[in-house]
Design a protein that fits this description.
The complex is a heterodimer of chains A (110) and B (113). Chain A has 110 residues and is mainly beta. Chain A is 0% helix and 54% strand. Chain A is globular. In chain B, a hairpin with a 2-residue loop joins strand 5 and strand 6. Classes of the chains: A mainly beta (110), B mainly beta (113). At the A-B interface, strand 4 and strand 5 of A face strand 4, strand 5 and strand 10 of B.
Amino acid sequence: SQQGEEDPQALSIQEGENATMNCSYKTSINNLQWYRQNSGRGLVHLILIRSNEREKHSGRLRVTLDTSKKSSSLLITASRAADTASYFCAPNTGGFKTIFGAGTRLFVKA
Amino acid sequence: DTGVSQDPRHKITKRGQNVTFRCDPISEHNRLYWYRQTLGQGPEFLTYFQNEAQLEKSRLLSDRFSAERPKGSFSTLEIQRTEQGDSAMYLCASSLEEASPLHFGNGTRLTVT
């Protein structure tokens, strides 16, 4: 497996605004997963998008995947203070190992 | 599904002491992972079990680290002769299949003084 690189490293927005985070990777993937981590807690799986999918929605989350550009984005709409967390992408090339980058730290101001 | 549980949640130890952490994965998950995370970084892969077999161990894991998963159920991670650089959050995760989502516990925060 390979490591995704999240961008930006940190993002600060007002409650109600949308937050967009990006992930880039280097080689072909089977799927790409996004995780959230609240301070002092474990990671929580948010969404998995397969390589043959271009967009996926889950509640206020929208994930896109562009395999030609080897990139993905996570959009959180109408953000809330409770969305304050670190977000990680995990591109999966097959195999068991999931490797994480440094993540994007999102801060939503109330 | 009670989730992945880790024990203890916090451990403070003096340099040179041994510590052991426990992870109970989701019962039907045969894959179990250990990660280490330091402040401001993403989790770093340490080791992986499929059932009771330890299939990969990261080069990050020095000889002072050992992990076991007897009978393919719970797992333990032991650190011998702890050093201040071992201070980190140790996360355990489990999954049902290869490439399927990981389910994480809330970690054990180790502080070595």
